[in-house]
Amino acid sequence: MKPFDSSRETAPRPADSGPKDRSSTVANLFREHNRVLVGFLFARLKNEQEAKEVAQEAYVKLLQLEQKPGAASFLRAYLFRVAEHLAVDRIRQRQIRSRLDQLNVTDDLFEQALVERAVIAGQELDLLKKVVTELPDKYREAFRLHKLEDRGFAEVAALMGLTERMVRKYVSNAVVYILLRREGNSRADAWEQVQS
User: Fold this and answer.
1) d(CA 98, CA 94)
2) Residues 6 or more apart whose Cβ sits within 8 Å of residue 120
């Protein structure tokens, strides 16, 4: 494909006398310059199909000039100018679509992260339920009342008939046991570490 050569521009043609003359002029432009025009557009768009589509749009715009009085007499130069503007519009549209596609990918990653977090949270909750059931009754009850029902140590002590100090000990030992089990320690090892 030959690059656009402005030195080949000919002298101004007289204004067309009507739609029929305009159509034949555009048809001549197509025959003489379409290959160069498509090459010109391909250099900008990097896509042959899009280059052909933009070239067609440019010819359509030239044909629509017949409805406007005093249309440009340098149709070839005008054709390339229109085609270049259309190519720039295509490039902008492509960039916008690309940005939107990136946002969609980000949304997908965000949704996947939420799903993964929900799965992990479910697993953590299941482990917590299991580990809490392993605690001796008084430890489990003190932990449940203080941590899960959000009651103060004094209230838990009154409900359980224990001293506040003993409730604090049960709750802190229960928390340590749960953390040790969460880290992968066996039941016996975790309980031994709590007692030491």
Assistant:
1) 6
2) none
